[in-house]
Write a structure and sequence with these properties.
Helix content is about 30%, strand content about 10%. The protein has six helices and five strands, in the order αββαβαββααα. Strands 1-3-2-4-5 form a five-stranded mixed β-sheet, with helices on one face. Helix 2 (about 85-100) links the parallel strand 2 (about 75-80) and strand 3 (about 105-110). Keywords: Membrane, Transmembrane, Transmembrane helix. Pfam families: Thioredoxin.
Length: about 220
Amino acid sequence: AGSGSAAAPAQAREQPVLEPVLPAAAEEPNGTDSAKAPKVNCEERNTTGIDRFTLQILNVSQDLMEFLNPNSSDCTLVLFYTPWCRFSASLAPHFNSLPRAFPTLRFLALDASQHSSLSTRFGTVAVPNILLFQGAKPMARFNHTDRTLETLKDFIFNQTGIEAKSDVAVMEEDWEGPLPSVLTKGIDWLLLFSVLFLASFVMYATVRTESIRWLIPGQEHEHQE
């Protein structure tokens, strides 16, 4: 997957401080310990009056921390993605269906290339990257390479003890949005930076070598016959 950490200049109000993130434990779909003692005790939100359960995608001017309440114990699953990453695109329909499976939890997604300071802050150096927050504190990271609705449901259940609705599946509408499942053209800023850095280094080394050659006695006349 592409990296979003160097995709855009850091926002001034964000402090690039690494937050402690507890690594996700190995998934145990058949275990009973996780069901008895969830790792994260989430306060489930009141769903009364909510007709449509969907995720919210933050735009470039929205700050993630404004959507996370530090004084609450409710839980939010946050996806860091980029629209030109094929792994993000393949994950999209599965992540789009999650709010229907867990209506009492919240789901957010943000373009890591537009929020590079957050990528640095939470150590999301590659996308897609999924973090489970309790309030404003990151509690666990989804570390599986198999990113499907089923593995995501297992991750949430093992961390929170909250069971997914059994009748939820990936539907045709989930391929359409809100998270895009079709790749869009974009610039891989990290790759571009790497190429420019390499080119600059080669140019510097070439100039430096020529300067040293002319300083060596006798070298300045080697081409004069």
